[in-house]
Input
Amino acid sequence: MKKAVVLLSGGMDSATVLAMAAAQGFDCHALSVDYGQRHHAELAAAQRVAQELGAREHRVVNIDLTGFGGSSLTDKKIAVSQQPTEGIPLTYVPARNTIMLALALAWAEVLQARDIFIGVNAVDYSGYPDCRPAYIEAFERMANLATKAAVEGHPLAVHAPLQHMSKAEIIRQGLALGVDFSHTVSCYQADESGRACGVCDACRLRHTGFVAAGIGDTTRYRVL
Amino acid sequence: MKKAVVLLSGGMDSATVLAMAAAQGFDCHALSVDYGQRHHAELAAAQRVAQELGAREHRVVNIDLTGFGGSSLTDKKIAVSQQPTEGIPLTYVPARNTIMLALALAWAEVLQARDIFIGVNAVDYSGYPDCRPAYIEAFERMANLATKAAVEGHPLAVHAPLQHMSKAEIIRQGLALGVDFSHTVSCYQADESGRACGVCDACRLRHTGFVAAGIGDTTRYRVL
Output
């Protein structure tokens, strides 16, 4: 079996990506990054999802980005928006995908894995620059100049299979591959047991996806 | 004054780069990464060098790469070589420069800095793939697709001013700009007070540089 490193946040997108990588026959090594986000419920969700979807192992790398600030996800002085925003939202974490892909690259090299999976998708393009296809391609190109493995003739591929899928398509794909979305956490301000607020951007996108897919929303919401 | 993020390991190369960036008029924000290296003497050296060379501030980001292993610098089960090696040395840390540049990118974006400095140099090319000019260019290209700042029309430049310099040239340049090399630590296995072993690859390259520059080696060595 070919090994792959799968970035797993604990949200619905990365859970679906893990299920897709497993369905393609990869031996999946799931990687989560604890970067000082507001709550740890999504890391607990990542651990459960990794087990349920048969990942070989799940690791959490700790890296403290709160000292840099600049995002409502890592700086508690910036409130999480409850209204749709124009342009790049405050929940954007500077260089987050670059840092997470760099860590995936490091682990892939040690594991001798040639494939990295990340759950960026079309809905995020307009808001987050590091979710665009051109960015993913540029990261892959850079990675293939960065590592001992690439120099020795083993190129690396960065897979972003959700890139051109809508939230509704992601939900259908995940359900078809056995993802239990009630165990995933997308909310930017979930409580410690993983219950969602229902009002942040992430909750809104997620709920809209269930509605568009014509599937009942299995998200666990708390009463605000 | 234009802000810059300068990656500072505590070794002679990055100290010289910091002095060069300051001499070019940048307001320097020095960044060190504690990635689980064998000793902390180089981080103590980085702190001292940052002060001596007038950096605005110095931050250390903690990230534990020891769980990934794969290098004699982060895995204590792999011995540090005391002989020159063919190909990529065991001291290569998987994706290290990619991880460090990604962190510099994140901080630069928060600071609204458009310039990152890194002390990779020609002597390292043959051994470390992520020291090559093509790699640095590919990182810069990727970075300019990754960030909110770049999307909003503020491109980022990655400067590697030592790229085409020999160790002797670096030493002369550093001395001309006031770097006290006795306060820098290059040794892969320095003791906690920063005294060098004198026999590892890094010590050998450093000493050879002083000899080639015709300058007395001010490195503090310990008796092995």
